[in-house]
Write a structure and sequence with these properties.
single chain, mainly beta, six-stranded antiparallel β-sheet, 15 strands, 8% helix, binds manganese (II) ion
Length: 199
């Protein structure tokens, strides 16, 4: 059999390398999942602005890599998340955010480019907003939901993440209840407020 470098892709038994562009986060070896605003209906506080923006072009809010990792506790899943600049009303573009299905698993995010925050929230309501900028790593502790938020007016927020491959994603809790806190622009600055829609 001829040697084909593409056979090395995703070899979780013997190892492999991958390239991620520092500026865009994209990789020639991986497709991305894309999240348009219409798929986040009701997640932003300003519902009228949200509906208007969906009707007027339905922007892509973020995209992310998902790798075909064996869902084994000894394997690691990794990829990039790319959150685009923009706002719905005064609320910055963000990812849906999720808990891990196995709640007791952490995650590491490393910011490749852009400027934003990682918003953390525990089931008990403890929260923290950690600033992300190129060259900074964020440790997401076990049990905390995590969402990245882009506060730059013109640059994508690109992060590289690594987590235990069998951790699983629980999006439902956030979709149903929302986060207790939101990050909005007030007087030109990112500001944390209580989420009026939190259930
Ligand atoms: Mn995660």
């Amino acid at each position: 059999m001829d040697f084909n470098p593409s056979d090395l892709k995703f070899d979780f038994e013997k190892g492999f390398t991958m390239a991620f562009d520092l500026k865009t986060g994209l990789s020639p070896d991986l497709e991305t999942g894309k999240r348009y605003l219409s798929e986040m209906k009701g997640m932003f506080a300003d519902s009228a602005a949200e509906e208007r923006m969906i009707a007027e072009g339905n922007p892509m809010v973020y995209e992310f890599h998902g790798m075909p990792v064996p869902e084994h506790p000894g394997d690691l899943a990794f990829g990039c998340s790319i959150c685009y600049p923009g706002k719905v009303g005064d609320e910055y573009f963000m990812t849906k955010g999720h808990f891990h299905t196995i709640l007791e698993t952490g995650e590491v995010y490393y910011c490749l480019s852009g400027h934003g925050y990682m918003l953390l929230e525990s089931p008990e309501g403890d929260w923290r907003a950690l600033e992300l900028e190129a060259g900074k790593a964020v440790y997401v502790p076990k049990r905390y939901a995590h969402r990245s938020i882009n506060v730059s007016p013109d640059e994508p927020l690109v992060t590289f993440f690594v987590f235990r491959a069998d951790a699983g994603h629980n999006y439902g809790t956030i979709e149903e209840k929302g986060y207790r806190k939101l990050l909005v622009e007030r007087d030109g600055k990112p500001t944390i407020i209580d989420n009026p829609k939190w259930k």
